[in-house]
Amino acid sequence: DDSGGQFPVLMFVHGGPTWLDLDRWSPEVQAYVDAGFAVGMVNYRGSIGYGREWRDTLVANIGGPELEDVNAGLADLVARGIADPERAAVGGHSWGGYVTLLELGKHPELWRCGVAGVPVGDHEQGYEELSPLLQEYDRALLGGKTPKELPELMRDRNPINFADEVVAPVLVVIGRNDSRCPYAQAMAYVDK
C-alpha cells in the first residue's frame, strides 16, 4: 500500500441545505469508519447553527459555496495526512445529493466515485414537480425567484448541465414517490 497510511475518504455532505452535522453518534457514519474510511463532514455555508449570515450565503447563490467548502475540507484532510486524495469519494442525500452530483460534474478530478441519495439532478425540472410549499422554500432559497428566472445561475449550478463531465462511477438512489426530490428530475440526470 503506497498511501502512506492515509485513509480512503468519504466527504459525506448533509442535506438541507438548512441543516447541519453534529459531533454525535451516527450509525451510517460509523459503518463507513468501520469499513476503513475517514469521513469528512462539512457544515458548508448555508448550514444552520452558525448565524443568519452563514446560513443565508446560499440565497440566490446555490451550488457554489457548498462545493468550495467541501473541497476545502477534503484539502485539509489531505494536507493533514489523514485522507488519500487518490481514494476520495463524495456522497449525501437530498441537498447532499445535489452537491454530490455538482462535485462529480464540476470537479471530476477529485473523486473516485459518488453516491447521490434522493438528489436534485435537474433543479429546473424538479421545481416544476414540487408541491407548492416546497416551491415556496425553493423560491426563498433562490432569492424570491424561480429557477427559470435565474438562467445564468442555473447554467452554472444545475447538475444536469455537467453530467457529461462525470467520469467517476455514481450511484443514484431515489424512490419513485419521493415528494421532496422528485423522481423524474433525478432520472433525467441519470438518463443524460
Distinctive features:
alpha/beta, five-stranded parallel beta sheet, 38% helix
How would you describe what is shown here?
The protein is of the alpha/beta class and 192 residues long. It contains eight helices and five strands; from the N terminus they run βαβααβαβαααβα. Strands 2-1-3-4-5 form a five-stranded parallel β-sheet, sandwiched between helices. Strand 1 (7-13), helix 1 and strand 2 form a beta-alpha-beta unit. It is globular and about 50 Å long. The model has no long low-confidence stretch (mean pLDDT 95).
Can you give the helix content as a percent range?
25-40%
CA radius of gyration is 16 Å
Q: List SSEs in N-to-C order.
A: EHEHHEHEHHHEH
Q: For the terminal residues, how far apart are their CA atoms?
A: 36 Å
Overall pLDDT confidence:
95
How many helical elements?
8
Strand order of the largest sheet: 2-1-3-4-5
Counting DSSP E segments of at least 2 residues, the number of strands comes to: 5
The largest pleated sheet is described as:
5 strands, parallel
**What general outline do the C-alpha atoms trace?**
globular
Structure class: alpha/beta
Low-confidence stretches: none
Strand content of the residues, in percent?
A: 15-25%
Please sum up the structure shown.
The chain has 8 helices and 5 strands.
Give the SSE layout.
Blueprint lengths: L6 E7 L13 H8 L3 E3 L11 H4 L9 H15 L3 E11 L1 H12 L6 E5 L5 H7 L2 H10 L9 H7 L12 E4 L9 H9 L1
Parallel strand pairs: 1-2, 1-3, 3-4, 4-5
